[in-house]
Amino acid sequence: MGLPTMEVLLSPWVLGVLGLVIGSFLNVVIHRLPQLLEREWLGDAAGYLQDEAAIGRVLGSTAQRTAELARQGETLAADVAALPAMSLARPRSRCPQCGHQLAWHENIPLLGWLRLGGKCSACGTRISVRYPVVEALTGLLFASAAVLAGPTAAAAVYCLALALLVAAAFIDLDTTLLPDDLTLPLVGLGLVAAWQQWTPVSLADAALGAFFGYFALWFVAFAYKLVRGVQGMAEGDFKLLAGLGALLGWQALPGIILLSSAVGAMVGIFLIVARGHGRNVPIPFGPYLAGGGVCALFFGAQINQLWQGL
Q1: Which percentage of the chain shows pLDDT scores above 90?
Q2: d(CA 260, CA 288)
Q3: CA-CA distance, 198 to 66, in Å (whole number)?
Q4: Prior bond to 91 cis, omega within 30?
């Protein structure tokens, strides 16, 4: 029996199953990556607090004040160092309530959650339905990418991009953070794919997409800050749209911005009016950008016709 052909490896069924597996890993990324980054940032903050020369230059503090801040930095550094070791691979998945380490069959994407009835087998604590949702969503997107691109390199590129978008969207939803670890690889992926002609986007269009994607939102945020005096959008959003522009070309940007802004505005108004969401409480824009990018990937021609008609 020979090796599987590209038609088999990049078929909707195979990529759909792979998407379920990748979705299981994305659940880990969504949960742990922000914690890993915040641990690093707290460690950096602890180091800055102990830099008495910098504190003195910036704050002009007295020796007593700089010594006090240094002690706080030492305490913070010790607290961070005392945290249990963590990476994206270690420790293995476990129940956050009782610490039960999941067996291999409990970790099977989608089926493991269904088999457990959505509860920890040790303590009965409910397991969020979002875990199987992320797995199923990623599997569906991967299978759809296979249908869209066929057994080509573009299918693999789109699957990788979709995995980055799913992780970025849910992390932003949870924490209002869009890590560079996800947005910058998306920019690089789009540019390399265009350069190698793995996707139907030219390198010039991908480069312009990255440029205009970043600076379109940067300009909006800059203008908003001039008018309102507050930061209205984070840099992670600029980088995410730059990544979508690199992947899909500059031509996709108007449709992505229109769609994500419209949906984001409707959701924001609903949260403020119906849920009493504070106007000063930030609403993450990354999920809407990611959703707009996914729609542009699969329905780009229809979206372009829509905004051009407007």
Answers
A1: 58
A2: 5
A3: 56
A4: yes
Residue with tokens 């996914």: 294
- How many Å is the Cα radius of gyration of the chain? 22
Q: Which residue has the higher pLDDT, 248 or 223?
A: 248
Task: Match 């911005």 to its residue by tokens.
Answer: 257
Amino acid at 309: G
262's CB contacts (< 8 A; 6+ apart) are none
* Number of CB atoms found within 10 A of residue 27's CB: 22
Q: What is the DSSP string of 21-37?
A: HHHHHHHHHHHHHHHHH
What tokens does 11 get? 């078929």
Please state, in angstroms and rounded to a whole number, the distance separating the CA atoms of residues 286 and 194. 24
Question: Looking at residues 78-97, what average pLDDT do you find?
Answer: 87
How far is 79 from 88, CA to CA, in rounded Å?
21
pLDDT tier for residue 225 given thresholds of 50, 70 and 90: confident
Q: Which of 191, 170, 179 is nearest to 128 (CA)?
A: 170
pTM: 0.92
d(CA 166, CA 65): 45
